[in-house]
Structures are given as structure tokens and as C-alpha cells.
Design brief:
Radius of gyration: 24 Å
Mean pLDDT: 84
Low-confidence stretches: 1-9, 330-336, 498-502
Strand order of the largest sheet: 3-2-1-4-5-6-11
Helix content: 25-40%
Structural class: alpha/beta
């Protein structure tokens, strides 16, 4: 049973944040620090956070552990006053992810009781009550119940679409509107929603900690507008400076077909898009205004929230992105079986730090320094096969962090100024890694080594390697030469040479 409200947790005790590598958690931590709290982040891989600007703050603790392991949780919770539960499994619809999310929440509730936590704060999903909720929203309700199965009081904030640069919902909306002047959509475009700006969500999350009246409560949170998705798409078009979109709703588009279409047109994978698409059939509007009364703030309109998000994209000020979440793959076990290696070197007349900086700008809008049309073609093929393709892009054109996505790669290792390793997440019959190493030569030039490794899986993997090998000189040698030319141009003429982003 939920306990009655008590005094807010002491600011002298750390606040635990799970999901700190994700979209919401990565933005919540610096706001908690600004509010004077000490923060302990539970992460599976601490390296994913060490490059965040706030990671070295004296009131931040990084605690390696797994939310599925009770001992890890109890250890991380020791001495904490409150905990933010921001863990979600964004997988395809069905019982698998619902069962996993429920099990994780039950484990969290038991660990919280054992560690003596004062309260849990959970960000869930808005939606009408009853039996017709989508799998996605039903799972969120089950998580609420599981978290409340123990004696620790739980505050639930229920939100609809969160509008912010880098959020999955925002990216779906932006890409659909930007790329499709005429859209054939499911009937859900006429469903009402109450989107909320990310800054308003973060205000509520932080304010909960010093608002004792929120303890044990379920609070709906939303923005200033109640709109249909049709209206929201037209607002996005206006914000992008585009003419009104022609939107034709039809009754035959299922969530599965909708998610596949979203996958092809936007950077969001079908695995993530499907539960989101299913949830759009439910009306998601606040049924009460207690949150705004208890924790007042100015709520942004949908247009204001979209303008702010687009401004961050243009200004390269995206703090976190939907693709940040996910494990960093461990070192590949290259022993046993055939491993193909394509290693190339070049000498660059530029300082090592400048060469590495040029390497680290790879992908996204910068491209791959040579044969970009081949990379674009490979990205489209990957999309058609169900992979992420190139549209996932990168969070920032200059800065890279361990574990974040870069087109159809993920940064599996980075040693600033020396080494960058990218692990392929494209659809492949095997494992692939692309590595760059920068070293200084005695004669005042820089040596750049580029190594591609591929471990094939079965005959399909062998066939794939031999089929693409003829293109390696164009793709890999061209990329190496392009990086050399760009770095040398920047050394001669300054950072903005060669048309690079600055």
C-alpha cells in the first residue's frame, strides 16, 4: 500500500537516477545539480557518462550496475533519499517487453524497500483508463502497479508526447512533415493529444522533490494546448516554413504497417516506432490539473516547444537524443573463425589533435569524406532490410560520446586525440568494426591508420565480404584520402576549410 505524504527527502542525501544515459535522464541530472541536489547515476557502463559535461561535478557519483540485478540496485540505493525510475524497454509490441518492464519494476520496488528509500518518482504515459489502452500504455500502467507493490511511496507523472530536440516522438513528427507533402495516415490523426515541452517535464520532475504534496500521487502533466495529431503536423509544417501538408486518413493502416512506414521515412526503427504508433490511437489529455497547481510554471504551447526544439537542432545544442540509450557492445571476440581485415594508412601534414578532430566529425551531415552516394545507397538498403540506415545521424556534428549512435554505427570506444572505434549496427551477416588510430611520427607529421574488421556469419557472411570487397578501394581508401585532405586544408586555412561544419 502507498504511504501517505511525508516530508520531502533531505537534500543532503543523494538522489538516484536510473536511465541517466537516456533522453530524459541525461537532461534531468544537470537540472538536479542546479537545484542543489547530489546525484547518483546507476548505469550499466559508466564510460557512457564520463564524457558528459556534468560527469565530473563534485556532487555526481557514477555507479556501475544493472537494474535487473537486485544486489546492484540495493547497493546503488544505499544512503539515497529518492530515486527516479526512468527505465523503459522500447521493443516491439507484445508480452515480451511488458513482462520485462514489469519484472524490472518489481525488482526496483523490492530493492527500494530494502535500502530504505523515502520515495520513487516515475515518468509514465498519459492515456484514458480502461481496457482499450495500447500495449505500450498498458505496460506503463503495469509498471506503476509494480513500483507500488512495496512500501516505498511512488509519485507518478503521466505525460503524452514530449517535444524536445532529439526525442523519438519529435523526430517522427519532424521527418514525416519535412519529407511528405502528402501523407496517407491511419485514422489516429484525428485523436486528441496534449503534448508537453521537455523543459516543462524537467521542471515537474525536479519540483517533485521539494513538493511534499506530490508524494504518493498520480499526476497528469501536459502542455498548454490540446490538439489533434493532424493539427500538430500542420503546426510543425508552419514552424519549418513549409506549406500545409495534405493529410489523408485511411482505415486500413495497421500499427505494424505504420511502424514500417515510419521506419522508412524517419530515423526511428520499426522496433521503437511500433509501440509509439499503437499508443497514438488513445486520447492522451490531462484529466486534472493538480501538477500545475502544486508546481506552477509557464507551460509552453506546441508551437513554442517545436520552435525551441528546432532552434537547438540548428544551434547544435542537442543535450541528449533518443538513440543515446542502449548498451555499448563489449570488445568483439575475434578469436576463432575467419576474420577479414582491411587496414590502410596515410601520413597527414597536420597536428594529431586536428587529424583526430577531423576523423571524429565523420557521418551525419558531414558525410564520409568520399563516395557519399555509396554510403547513402547502403543506408537505404539497410533501411529496407529493417536496419537503422543513415537517417539516425548523430547528436552533434563535432562532439562524440561513448555509446551514442552515429548513422548506422555506434561509438564503442573513444580515446580523444588517439582512437575512435565504431561498431556496425546495420543489417549484416556478421560483425563489423571500423577503427581509426592517430599517432605522431618523428618527422612532425601524423600517421592515420584505418582498420575495418569483419567476422562473417556462415556462408552468407563470406559471400557478403567477397561481394563488397571490390568497392573497398573506393569507399575505404577514398575515405582515408578525404580525411587527409580535409585535415590538411584545416591546418593550412583554419577549422572551417573544406566546407566542414564549425
Amino acid at each position: 500500500m502507498t504511504q501517505p505524504p511525508t516530508a520531502q527527502p533531505s537534500a543532503t542525501r543523494p538522489v538516484l537516477v536510473t536511465g541517466a544515459t537516456g533522453y530524459i535522464g541525461g537532461r534531468l541530472v544537470p537540472r538536479l545539480l542546479d537545484a542543489g541536489y547530489s546525484v547518483r547515476c546507476l548505469v550499466r557502463c559508466a564510460d557512457k557518462l564520463r564524457t558528459r559535461p556534468w560527469a565530473t561535478h563534485p556532487r555526481v557519483q557514477l555507479c556501475a550496475g544493472d537494474a535487473a540485478e537486485p544486489q546492484s540496485l540495493t547497493h546503488a540505493m544505499q544512503g539515497c533519499g529518492a530515486a527516479f525510475y526512468l527505465v523503459h524497454s522500447m521493443m516491439a509490441a507484445g508480452r515480451a517487453y511488458r513482462d520485462r518492464d514489469r519484472a524490472l519494476a518489481l525488482t526496483f520496488a523490492r530493492a527500494a524497500a530494502e535500502a530504505g528509500l523515502e520515495r520513487i518518482i516515475y515518468l509514465g504515459g498519459l492515456g484514458e483508463t480502461g481496457p482499450n489502452l495500447s500495449e505500450h500504455l498498458s505496460s506503463r500502467r503495469e509498471v506503476e502497479i509494480a513500483l507500488r507493490s512495496g512500501p516505498v511511496p511512488v509519485t507518478v507523472l503521466r505525460a503524452a508526447m514530449i517535444i524536445g530536440s532529439g526525442s523519438a516522438s519529435f523526430e517522427i513528427l519532424r521527418y514525416l512533415v519535412e519529407r511528405l507533402p502528402i501523407m496517407i495516415t491511419p485514422r489516429w490523426v484525428s485523436t486528441e493529444c496534449q503534448p508537453i515541452a521537455i523543459r516543462n517535464v524537467l521542471h515537474y520532475l525536479v519540483a517533485c522533490l521539494h513538493t511534499p504534496e506530490t508524494v504518493g500521487r498520480t499526476l497528469d502533466i501536459g502542455g498548454a494546448d490540446v490538439l489533434t495529431y493532424h493539427e500538430l503536423m500542420q503546426i510543425m509544417a508552419a514552424a519549418l516554413g513549409l506549406p500545409r501538408r495534405i493529410i489523408i486518413p485511411v482505415p486500413v493502416l495497421t500499427p505494424r504497417l505504420s511502424s514500417l512506414w515510419i521506419h522508412l521515412v524517419t530515423p526511428i526503427s520499426a522496433r521503437i516506432a511500433r509501440p509509439l504508433a499503437e499508443g497514438l490511437r488513445n486520447r492522451v489529455v490531462c484529466r486534472e490539473q493538480s501538477a500545475q497547481h502544486l508546481m506552477p510554471q509557464r507551460l509552453l504551447t506546441a508551437r513554442e516547444a517545436i520552435d525551441a526544439a528546432l532552434g537547438n537542432l540548428v544551434g547544435h545544442a542537442v543535450e541528449t537524443a533518443w538513440s543515446d540509450a542502449g548498451p555499448i557492445p563489449g570488445d568483439a571476440d575475434w578469436s576463432g573463425g575467419k576474420v577479414f581485415i582491411d587496414r590502410r594508412e596515410t601520413r597527414v601534414a597536420a597536428p594529431p589533435e586536428l587529424v583526430f578532430d577531423t576523423v571524429a566529425r565523420i557521418g551525419g551531415t558531414q558525410g564520409y569524406y568520399a563516395a557519399d552516394w555509396l554510403w547513402v545507397l547502403r543506408g537505404w538498403l539497410d533501411k529496407l532490410l529493417g536496419g537503422p540506415g543513415l537517417r539516425r545521424g548523430r547528436r552533434d556534428p563535432r562532439d562524440l560520446r561513448p555509446g551514442e549512435a552515429l548513422d548506422f554505427w555506434r561509438v564503442s570506444a573513444i580515446e580523444p586525440g588517439r582512437r575512435l572505434e565504431l561498431r556496425a549496427e546495420m543489417r549484416l551477416p556478421g560483425q563489423a568494426v571500423l577503427e581509426f588510430q592517430v599517432t605522431s611520427d618523428p618527422d612532425a607529421v601524423t600517421r592515420l591508420t584505418q582498420t575495418a574488421r569483419f567476422r562473417p556469419r556462415g556462408l552468407a557472411g563470406l559471400a557478403y565480404w567477397y561481394a563488397v570487397s571490390p568497392l573497398h578501394h573506393v569507399v575505404f581508401q577514398g575515405m582515408l584520402n578525404g580525411i587527409r585532405r580535409a585535415a590538411q586544408a584545416r591546418a593550412r586555412h583554419g577549422p572551417s576549410a573544406s566546407g566542414e561544419l564549425t
